[in-house]
Design brief:
This protein is of the alpha+beta class. 39% of the residues lie in helices and 23% in strands. It folds into 2 domains: 2-115, Sufe protein. Chain: A (Alpha-Beta Complex); 122-169, no CATH class. Helix 1 packs antiparallel against helix 2 (94-115).
Length: 170
């Protein structure tokens, strides 16, 4: 299990008006924290905690529990669209949804970084084709660095190919 925390802070540097015409002083308008407890083997969200430190309206605090519906969801391809479907529009808060969507890829990177703290048994890894396929699919085209035709993906493919060739030589 790993805990991933995301934070959104929105500060206005000058006095401002809400769409209803209400004048508000400069300062923090949104300060929201989302914590996800993620099961690392399957990237499944086990628990979610929302802390609405500051919001512009009292009604905004009513969406604090809206993220409970994501318990059991996996962080995988389609995560962003799934979150929009579950929480978008009147079902939730656009700021929380945006924060949650940003947390998806960061959570995966954090999980991979945590796994990288331990020595990996390469023989076990290359013997597990399903794991390699899942790992590659999880990275592929997730950002500029891991684009299909980029040098990082090329190096990763070469690394895996070399491991598999060495394994076949034994």
């Amino acid at each position: 299990m790993v805990v991933v925390e995301g934070r959104l802070v929105d500060r206005r540097l000058k006095d401002y008006y809400l769409v209803t015409g209400e004048r508000r002083p400069a300062g923090e308008i949104h300060h929201m924290v989302v914590r996800l407890l993620i099961e690392t083997a399957g990237f499944t969200i086990q628990d979610v905690e929302v802390d609405l430190v500051s919001v512009p309206r009292d009604e905004c605090a009513e969406v604090g529990n809206s993220l409970d519906v994501i318990k059991g969801e996996k962080i995988a391809k389609g995560f962003s669209n799934r979150m929009k479907s579950l929480l978008g529009g009147i079902k939730g808060c656009t700021h929380l949804v945006t924060l949650l969507i940003a947390m998806g890829p960061a959570a995966l990177q954090g999980i991979f970084s945590r796994r990288a703290q331990k020595s990996m048994d390469m023989q076990t890894l290359i013997a597990d084709q399903a794991r390699i396929k899942f790992f590659m699919k999880t990275l592929l085209n997730t950002c500029y660095v891991w684009r299909d035709d980029g040098p990082a993906m090329k190096r990763l493919r070469e690394f895996i190919d070399n491991l598999q060739k060495k394994s076949g030589d034994r």
